[in-house]
Amino acid sequence: MVELRTLSPESVPSALEMAKRYRMLNEPHEAESICLDILAVKPDHQDALITLLLALTDNFANELNPSYQMALEVAQRLSDQYCKAYYTGIIYERRAKAHLGQGGPGSGTVAYSWFAKALESFDQALKGCDPGNQDAVLRWNSCARILNSRPDVKPSDDEPSEMFLDSYETPH
Q1: How do residues 15-36 score in pLDDT, each as one tens digit?
Q2: Quick one: 30 exposed, middle or buried, by C-beta within 10 A (0-12, 13-18, 19+)?
Q3: Of the candidates 44, 41, 73, which has an alpha carbon nearest to the alpha carbon of residue 57?
Q4: How far is CA 37 from the centre of its chain?
Q5: How far apart are CA 107 and CA 97, in angstroms?
Q6: C-alpha–C-alpha distance, residues 156 and 154, integer Å
Q7: DSSP labels, 102-167
Q8: How far apart are CA 156 and CA 168, in angstroms?
Q9: What does the pLDDT average to over 137-160?
Q10: What's the CA gap between 77 and 60, in Å, rounded?
């Protein structure tokens, strides 16, 4: 096994900028690796945790497992309750979009359940946010527009939507 090298604490700001750049270049694995290096030096670095969470969710379309579970664990490490709710909502929203992207029978119903969870999280974030921070409103509206414009994204006619989450809660 190849031993990892430790990042110097002084290089954390530039490493974080590099991780953000790799996300913009659609290279989430590179961003994830850099964030893990930062967190090895500064385990509670909030910006690195957020960038790691977003990089993990960037992978949902390609590999839901283990990225989904890891993203939820990272969200729990965020120190601010608003951030926990907001970024958990992003995890659910991106999971919903991943299910839509996969398509297939029932994908709209599964996606609906995840969008519903995202809306709950964004609603929770709105209860504790600064009036000047409307990020959760923007995410809420994005989800609502998908729900309002896609007739295939709807709850099941046969069962409550919450039942669909049970069989899909474990990433596949």
Answers
A1: 999 999 999 999 999 999 999 9
A2: middle
A3: 73
A4: 20
A5: 10
A6: 6
A7: H-STTHHHHHHHHHHHHHHHHHHHHHTS-TT--HHHHHHHHHHHHHHH-TTS---SSS-THHHHHH
A8: 15
A9: 90
A10: 20
Percent over 70 (pLDDT), the chain:
91
Distances (CA, A) of 119 to 31, 113, 126, 145, 147: 27, 10, 10, 12, 11
The position carrying tokens 């998908």 is: 146
End-to-end C-alpha distance for the chain, whole angstroms: 28
CA distance 76 to 70: 10
Q: Which of 89, 26, 77, 72 shows the shortest CA–CA distance to 48?
A: 77
Q: Are 102 and 138 in contact (CB under 8 A)?
A: no
Q: Give the three-class secondary structure for 31.
A: helix
Residue among 55, 73, 27, 82 at smallest CA distance from 171: 73
How far apart, in whole angstroms, are the C-alpha atoms of residue 9 and residue 17?
14
The encoded tokens of residue 42 equal: 């500064």
Under DSSP, the state recorded for 63 is -
**Residue owning tokens 């930062």:** 38
Q: What is the pTM of this model?
A: 0.89
Confidence of residue 130 (pLDDT cuts 50, 70, 90): confident
CB 65 within 8 A of CB 171: yes
